[in-house]
Each structure stands twice: as C-alpha cells, then as structure tokens.
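STAS domain-containing protein: structure, please.
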Amino acid sequence: MVSSKEQIEDLKAELKERNKELAFMYSISDSVDSHGENLETLLQEIIKPLPKAVRFPEIAAAELNVAGDTYKTSDIPVTEWSISGNIVINKKVAGKLTVFYMENRDVFVRQIFTHEEEGMIRAFSERLGKIIERIWSEQALLEKTREITKLSTPITKIWDEILILPLIGTLDSERTLFMMEELLNKIRDTGSRYIIMDATGVGTIDSAVAANILKTSRAVKMLGSRMIFTGIKPEVAMTMVHLGIDLGEIITRATLQEGVEFALNEKGLEIVRIEQTST
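Here you go.
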C-alpha cells in the first residue's frame, strides 16, 4: 500500500516534470521572437532546451531532420532509447524530431519515456511543422515581392556613365531601400557617374521615403557619382514643403529631358537639333 508521503513525493516529481515541459514550451516562443527571420539559426536554437524537458536531461539529446538538413544537440548518433515525432509541412511529412537518451539506466524498468513526454514531443513536432511552414511561406512571399519590385524598378543605362531610374507607383520605405540597394549595385557594376532619378510617375512622397532618397543621394556621392532628381509634380513638391523635407543636397530638374541635358552637359556633351534640308 502506497503511503501518503510517497503519494506526495510522486506528485512533487510529476509537478517538476510538468514545469520543465512548460519552461520548454515558453522557450519556443522566445526562440521564434529572437531568430524568426533566420530559419537555420531558429531550428538549431529551438531544439537546444528540448533535452531539459525530459526526466533525465543529463543524458538526453535531440536531433531534428527536416528538408534534408540535420540539427542536433549532440554528436552522438540516435540510440534505441528514443522517441520521435513527424514534422508535417503542407500536409506532407518533411522531417522527424527525435529525443533520445545517450545511455541506458536501470531506472528504465517500465518505460523509457512517460506518456506525457510522448505527448509533448508529438505536440512540439506538430507546432514546429507549422512554424517552418509559416516561415517558408513568408520567405516565398518576400522573394516574390522582391522580384516584382525589381521588375517595377528598372535601371537603364542611356549613355556612357549615365543611368536612369524611373520611379513608378507608390513608394514605401521597404521599396525605397530595395531600390537603393539595386541602384548602388548597378553603379558599381557599370561605373556610372550620373544617376537620373525620375519621379514623374510617383503620386506622393512622404517624409520616410524622402529621407531614404536623401540617403541614396549621399551613398551615390560616396561612390563618386552624382544624383539628379527630376519630374517632381507640383502637388508632391507642396506636400514635401509642408512636411519640411529639404532636398537641397540633391540636384533637381523639372523634367526628365532637362535632367538628361544636365548630365550630358556635365560630360561636355550637348543635344543639338539637326535641321533637315530639303533636296
């Protein structure tokens, strides 16, 4: 017959195990918050505390296999004293999470892992699959967005050392930063000295976008080039004045044609009308 004292000790031990499982579950959220943008780092970090969630953490290890990659907390191969859960992504098994003991002990008289631990591993494997699926979806969407943004931000070389970047549609901070990155890479690749940024197709420019344009101009200058800003609409100009946006550091011209003429003049060239003669 089990004494009351033994029952209390069993309850204490059970409570201790549940607390370890809860602590592990909380650590998942912390890992996602800290490393959610880098999937490889996230998966390595997210399994680190897993061995601490089972009864014998000092001899426990974890291994995660997903999409052909392996993440583990120990270099020791998975042993026979293990429990696994499938990683399901987009309704397909894409990997497996395994928790195992690196050695056997005499205490394993009934079962190696408790029913609660088995349930925890299954629940965590299911949650991990959803986390990976969400991150993959976000990465695919981001890549598609970058492709669309690149197509909507054509940078064209119109003359030796002269680039044109027409701004089209609505500008936001993310798109402007991407545009700056692409422009600087293009300058590096082509050695262009004059960059004409034409805003004829832009409906509005807010303070954040204007700040990024200024940063772009400074970055262009650091590469030994000059930026010419053209095509600012009157309503956009008024909005920028009301917002206190000062583009004084940037060369501005009313139209794209004037911007091209300025760049050519700087190179010692000019546009000359050719008079047609009748024969």
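Notes: The mean pLDDT is 81.
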